[in-house]
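If your schedule permits, I should be very grateful for your opinion on a structural question. Please examine both parts with care and let me know of anything in them that strikes you as inconsistent. The record follows directly beneath this note:
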Amino acid sequence: MWVEKYRPKTLDEVTNHKDTIQSLNAFLATPKAMPHLLFAGPAGTGKTSVALCIAQQLLEKHWRDYTLELNASDERGINMIRERVKAFSRHAIGTLGNIPFNLIILDECDQMTADAQTALRRIMETNSRVSRFILICNFSSKIIAPIQSRCVIFRFAGLKKEDIVGCLQRISKKEALTLKDDGASAIVEYCGGDLRRAINVLQAASTLSKTVDEKVVLQVVGQASPKEVGEMLKKAFAGNYLEARDMLYDLMTRRGLSATDIIRQIHREVLKLDFPEKDRAELSNIIGEYDFRLVEGANEDVQLSALLAQFAKFNADGGKKA
């Protein structure tokens, strides 16, 4: 997998997060003074990679022997904390290789039960002489306050477009691929700030063609072209409701796209419209209502047709209701 093949080995290889990397390098300069760490942020922003880089830089060739890596979403109960984590955190570190402490990496720890988190906070305190914890989560608000107070918290934001494109270009060069600008933009738009998903999409696209452009990317991710969605919206705002609905049905039947995928693409394209900000806000509010109806199980055809009918009430020139 390219995600593992090109995972950074040192903190200096990590994409962006310069302030976080600078702070962590300062901790690594005096390892025994390093506190417990809590990494929070969206998926695919480098939290686990940074944790593994810390383990490899601190423990060097012995890092696998002195590192316990667990995914708390798989083993989320109190027994996991009492049995595996507690036992490992008490291991004597010895003198081999001048190991400063054991390292315990708990991924997806916001999925741990309240009892497990309560048990963990005491272990973090009593075994701090021989062990350090790196907790990784998507939502720090789901971590109990006593654990948060025992950690230094680092927040990982979604990566910027130029950072993701730069990483994809480096991988493409090493894999003898030609990544076109429109292909890179399509990957970024689909993946947002999730670099892991972007790399997976690039690898999937490489199986179809050695030249990765927008057409290949859209074929892989199963989405409509932004131009097609934009044309459908243009017809709806111009009052050509039936033509817009025909394009919608074409996307759903010929492309096999789900209503959820289409409505998300509609939302992205609406935000790009040259409408007054007030009208774009109102349109986003309407989209949110129909998205909620779809989540609640309403009929996809009826709801998306009704959404286009709402758009048909707007004038494409001024964005005012007709």
User: Anything to note?
Assistant: The longest strand covers residues 131-137.
